[in-house]
Amino acid sequence: MATYAVGDIQGCYRELMALLETVGFSHKTDQLWCVGDIVARGPDSADAIRFFYENESSAHTVLGNHDLNLVAVLLGHRKAKRNDKLSGILTASEKLDWVDWLRSQPLMQQLNPSTVISHAGIYPWWSVEEAQTYADEVSAVLNNNDFEDFIKSMFSNKPSKWDSSLSGFDRYRFIVNAFTRMRYCHPNAELDLTRKDDPNQHSSHDDLQPWFNFWSSNDYRLLFGHWAALMGNTHRQDILALDTGCVWGQYMTLYDLSNDKFYYQNAFSA
């Protein structure tokens, strides 16, 4: 029995299938976890989400920002972005079933006693235990009958800094942004949700740092995606970046937790 984690799929369904064939993935004995963003700019988002939905006993995901955006689009609270290739989902008969399935997925999951997976990472001023508590808070909201009230209020960059006294939608919004949109942080613990570039391109005088530069615990191995510009490079053995830009013409990364081995699949041409 093997457990695998795969980077952002973003509708690159053929590459995912090729990777699973490479490792001989078995739905009977193996488990697959995606770091989130099953859908968006790739050509086969409907096939990608259908694969996870139909194989939920062996194929799992944590929520990414594009997955949550899809929920809002399908419920009519946001317009589909021009670059997101969602037409196959928008016309699918299962689309509302997918809404219910997506909102039941976690923001964070502990894969084994020492490994945690989330889409963008973990806010470095939280412990893993605190992060799990906050992720569970939002999961409870998303699984509530009035979850659409939060979906309508979810899309904002504020608040940008955690305070345990935050309440209501402000509290939930920060938690969602930390788990699904975070890349850079300021030393004062504020999120910067505007920059997406490679940290190696930064001026040495810039106080913005990748979130993982502020992460001090080494009790857990953290798996995340979301940040294709990193191309898997965090300069840390305990923090693994699995989004390697398949949707941008690079490659998809699959990580085998059982033997600490990586597999790669180059993006197919359109």
Give the SSE order as H and E letters. EHEHEHHHEEHHHEEEEEEE
Q: Mind telling me which CATH architecture this is? A: 4-Layer Sandwich
Count of alpha/pi helices: 8
Strand order of the largest sheet: 3-2-1-11-12
Straight-line distance between termini: 34 Å
Task: Please write out the topology.
Blueprint lengths: L2 E4 L6 H11 L7 E4 L10 H10 L4 E3 L3 H10 L12 H4 L4 H9 L4 E5 L2 E4 L9 H15 L4 H7 L14 H13 L3 E2 L5 E2 L16 E2 L10 E4 L14 E3 L9 E6 L4 E6 L4
Helix pairs in contact: 3-5, 6-8
Quick recap of the structure?
This protein is of the alpha/beta class. The protein has 8 helices and 12 strands. It starts with a strand and ends with a strand.
Structural account:
29% of the residues lie in helices and 17% in strands. It has helices at 13-23, 45-54, 65-74, 87-90, 95-103, 128-142, 147-153, 168-180; strands at residues 3-6, 31-34, 59-61, 108-112, 115-118, 184-185, 191-192, 209-210, 221-224, 239-241, 251-256, 261-266. The mean pLDDT is 95. It is globular, with a radius of gyration of 17 Å. It has a single domain (3-266), classed as Purple Acid Phosphatase, chain A, domain 2 (4-Layer Sandwich). The protein is α/β, with parallel strands linked by helices. It has a 5-stranded mixed sheet.
